[in-house]
Each structure stands twice: as structure tokens, then as C-alpha cells.
Amino acid sequence: MASADDKSFDDINVTPMVDLYLVLLLIFIVMTAAGVKGMKVELPRSSDKSAKNLSVPKIQAITVDAEGKIQLNTTPVTLEELESKLSALKTTTPDLPVIVRGDTAVQYRGVMSVLDVLGRLGIDKIGLATQKPK
What we know:
The chain is 37% helix and 16% strand. The protein has helices at 15-35, 79-92, 108-121, and strands spanning 60-64, 70-72, 75-77, 97-102, 125-128. β2 and β3 (75-77) form a beta hairpin. It is elongated. The termini are far apart.
């Protein structure tokens, strides 16, 4: 009587080969999908001026120099002028971003007065500009 060890193994295990084929098929599918490019389409131009409203709002830079003088972008302004100009900009752009740049020698109240104006206007996207440490 023959034992199990004497049995000849004449069948081939194809499971690892099927796994390999499936992995290769998956790679080819992914590479083909990544290589497909869309059709080139000439889009019509809009004559409407509403396209400007879709653009990202311009960041307003407020600078307080060492003497406490305030500039909006590059224009020198007083606190009252700053408030009126930012109020006008806020009506056109509700989520107006503002960067406050204060000189290291400026008194703390100079920057705080600018931040008070921004708080009264409801501007909440405020950044404080700093330099990286050396």
C-alpha cells in the first residue's frame, strides 16, 4: 500500500500565477487611465463683468512704521481714513484679507489701534507679518 509521501505531484499550483496576472492587469489599467488626456476645448469668453468677482480678493497690507505713521498698501493714511477705505473695500469683498506689518520700534498702541479698527469693521482674516529668526 502506498503512503501519501509516495504520491507523485504532477499538478501545478496556478494561484501565484493568477495573482501575478491580476497585479499586472491592475498596473496596466492604472497606467492607461493616467495616460488618457482630455479633449482640448476652446471655451467661450464671458462678456459679463461678474468674472472679476470670482477672483481671489487682493490682500491689503497695513504698515505701522517706527514713528507710528500708518500706510494702507503704499498710501499714507490716518486711522479715520484707514477705517473709511477698509469699510469701502469690505462692502465689495466681505472676506477681505489684511496683513498688519509693524516695525519693531513701534509702540504697542500703534498696532493695537489698527487692530481695533479692523475689529470694528468685522475683518477677521488678519495676518501679522514677521521675519524668520536668523
